[in-house]
């Protein structure tokens, strides 16, 4: 069957069947028979649409005929006046016919049209649309006279390419030349504002100017203001602009819907979409794309299906922008197979189409498939954009492959995206999550321009690696250059305090959020404070803090508190935490395991047996500890207690050889980490079979002396493996980096970066 299992189960719903049927009928009406069959019957088909192929051939032929007519017209000596030349240039811009545009340019130079301001403005617009800013600027600089259209076209070109400084320099030059800008000029400059404090400041200055100049009532200006404020993080200002607009077109509604979506208020975005429909505004492709993004952000499959139906009704289903948005929305709802079929149905896949399917696989945890698709895209000659690289780096992060990530970085440099802020921010996150905080720092230091996300990424990265002091130093540096922290910044700051044990400092930063910066703490911030107090053993304060929260704590907060109760052996508070947690997630395996481990740490073996019986009755099985290590581009996995691994004999021999050396260096097995009621000698034997030790032994046997070892574990590292790793790093002169579910541990010369505080 084509449809994903969760959607198949919903097919029995009387409420859903008519909607799926309508989607199928719509595709059938437009002769899109493959997708019609998918939604009508739930079956996939490998056949391609002959109609689609014919349409592509017809479209290609039409454009070829047009291009031949251009050449014949110019070479045949047909005289062109300025209006005809401008019309042809406009058409060249629309279809991206740069070569034909250059022919018209050459003709205008050879004729009397070279100095015509109308033709010059059209040439600039054509070169801008065809992404040749150098040629556009050359035309602009060579014009003896420039009107507002020429100035605006050049400003628009810089704005489209993100070259804010050039756009603002031209605006200043335009004013010095005494040329008054119009609504399109203002809209172009507003779109060039960068998404930082400088951009916001410039946007506010221009806002005041357009009010005085009487331009604020124009749709283009109001919409540009709305988008500018949203991009710069001021949703409140965007809403104010929207509310004050004397009239609103579909672009206005699309912009406010996108603004809410960009600020993760997806419910409000959908509410605004419904209000727009009630006011009789017909959505365009951008409206639908933004609304689909919010539906996907909520994981609301029913909403996505309704929007899909609407796309067909208004005839926008086959537009590549809408198809790309549908792909992304379905994948976020767990329907990757539907995304794949929509991808295959797109006749002219653009870079956004490829990026959407690559991102879908990366988000689904299939990093290898995401990178395979990227390779196919490149072979087809499609150039990646910034979002493509963000998705491929996410894929590398998912599979924790440092070498593949470095290959991506080489491609990023080759294609010139190493100056893109968003790509560099993702690189910082990639290196930090792969255990290479030094490489993350190198990327950060090499950036010519950094936005708030850049600072957030490096602060969070240092926090994850236990470099709390450095995280706080970076926060101070952020403030000194005039940036205003947001809620993500404070997650990094509070995490820095948590991992470094800076309890009082962390509590101070938590208060400062609302008092000094007007940021209302979210669940994540409360979770950081609970973690901060709990790790420090201040469990009563942590419990009181939970009780004072303005909303009900989520499972993560109770899990954090329960884990700390286990570490500090406070059974009474731990039991209370477990009870609250089981009310929220009655079948949570980690909760049952944490509760059993807490009882075992207190030698409460009867309670341990009761919890294990409860798990058995519910059909719950404990998740086994598993560790991974990559050697020579191959990833090897090791599971606690396994005996049938191909290399197990050598690994046990290596551990038995190393264990006495570790003991001589001061290592003492922590048998309390083995939570079973058995003899001490048996506990020591089992400790030697923990997955992280097996992975380290394998790396020691298969990598050159002195090289670093990177281990990834699916659970929190146990106290014995933590101790053993410190001594292994000392006696083997190796740096061992271990990434568990809570943080990174850097073991070097017998010391861990966490300072035994984790």
Automatic annotation (TrEMBL):
An example Gene Ontology biological process: RNA modification
Keyword Repeat applies: yes
Keyword annotations: Repeat
InterPro entries: DYW_dom, E_motif, PPR_At4g14850-like_plant, PPR_rpt, TPR-like_helical_dom_sf
PPR repeats: from-to residues: 147-181, 249-283, 350-384, 420-454
Oxidoreductase in keyword set: no
Record field: transmembrane: none
Gene3D superfamilies: Tetratricopeptide repeat domain
Protein name per its UniProtKB record: DYW domain-containing protein
